[in-house]
């Protein structure tokens, strides 16, 4: 692994405004997320408490590199859950651990000014995609073979939401990771609730709900894409008009 990166002191004297460093505008757009999720206010209070208390030996890249571990264990516990659904409680534990490491890896890096912005952006989101795949692979062990097609469709839809996020980042330099009041934390919470319901009621309701999940996700994605293209069209036309006005001024002044 890379050489250890010295952490900045976490005293208030050296970091007078930690929230600006963590949540403020970033030089690299991919390091500055916009999240309008329902639980964001609570998460910011949690970050204020947790970040100064994370041990010095635990660095941002350690947290990022733990995501593949949680993903592999989710697949393993999903396999065992095919025989006993109570293994899904350990899947829920992995989701909670992933929340901690994924939520705080970038914030810890900015809090300590570690500097791994582009490295973190690349691997964090690559591993997040692997985490999404691990959830669906785990569910595939619980469902009949005929449900694999629907699971693949769900994966395509949720992957498209991720692609939309990255395309909008490239087009607008805005990295928005939530859709209305539903963000990554709300998704994890929904998964934990779903797993608890599976343990209680069995997997038959999941098999029946998947087509509706895929269908509603597709409709939501279509609406999102329509709004995005409308916004980008307007932005392009405004830029074109501004450019034309600038050229007219140059002609007049010349």
Instruction: Please provide the ordered H/E string of secondary-structure elements.
Output: HEHHHHHHEHH
What is the rounded distance between the termini?
A: 59 Å
* Average predicted confidence as pLDDT: 86
Under the CATH scheme, the architecture is Up-down Bundle
Q: Tell me the radius of gyration.
A: 22 Å
Number of DSSP-assigned strands: 2
For the sheet with most strands, the description reads: 2 strands, parallel
Overview features:
about 70% helix, 9 helices, single chain, Four Helix Bundle (Hemerythrin (Met), subunit A), mainly alpha, about 250 residues, globular, disordered N terminus, two-stranded parallel sheet
Structure summarized in a few sentences:
It contains nine helices and two strands, in the order H-E-H-H-H-H-H-H-E-H-H. It is mainly α and 254 residues long.
Layout of SSEs?
Elements: H1 18-23, E1 33-34, H2 40-50, H3 60-64, H4 67-81, H5 88-112, H6 117-140, H7 148-172, E2 175-176, H8 184-201, H9 204-253
Parallel strand pairs: 1-2
Helix pairs in contact: 4-5, 4-6, 5-6, 5-8, 6-7, 7-9
């Amino acid at each position: 692994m890379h050489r250890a990166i010295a952490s900045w002191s976490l005293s208030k004297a050296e970091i007078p405004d930690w929230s600006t460093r963590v949540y403020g505008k970033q030089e690299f757009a991919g390091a500055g997320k916009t999240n309008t999720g329902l639980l964001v206010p609570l998460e910011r209070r949690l970050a204020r408490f947790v970040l100064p208390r994370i041990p010095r030996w635990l660095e941002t890249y350690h947290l990022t590199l733990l995501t593949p571990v949680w993903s592999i264990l989710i697949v393993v516990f999903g396999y065992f859950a095919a025989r006993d659904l109570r293994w899904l409680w350990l899947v829920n534990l992995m989701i909670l651990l992933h929340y901690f490491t994924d939520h705080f890896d970038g914030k810890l890096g900015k809090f300590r000014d570690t500097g791994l912005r582009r490295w973190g952006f690349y691997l964090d989101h690559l591993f997040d995609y692997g985490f999404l795949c691990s959830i669906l692979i785990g569910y595939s062990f619980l469902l009949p073979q005929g449900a694999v097609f629907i699971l693949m469709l769900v994966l395509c839809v949720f992957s498209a939401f991720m692609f939309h996020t990255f395309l909008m980042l490239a087009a607008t330099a805005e990295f928005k990771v939530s859709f209305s009041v539903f963000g990554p934390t709300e998704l994890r919470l929904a998964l934990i609730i779903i797993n608890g319901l599976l343990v209680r009621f069995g997997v038959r309701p999941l098999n029946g709900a998947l087509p509706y999940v895929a269908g509603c996700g597709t409709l939501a994605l279509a609406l999102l894409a329509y709004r995005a293209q409308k916004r980008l069209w307007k932005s392009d036309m405004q830029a074109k008009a501004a450019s034309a006005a600038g050229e007219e001024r140059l002609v007049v002044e010349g």
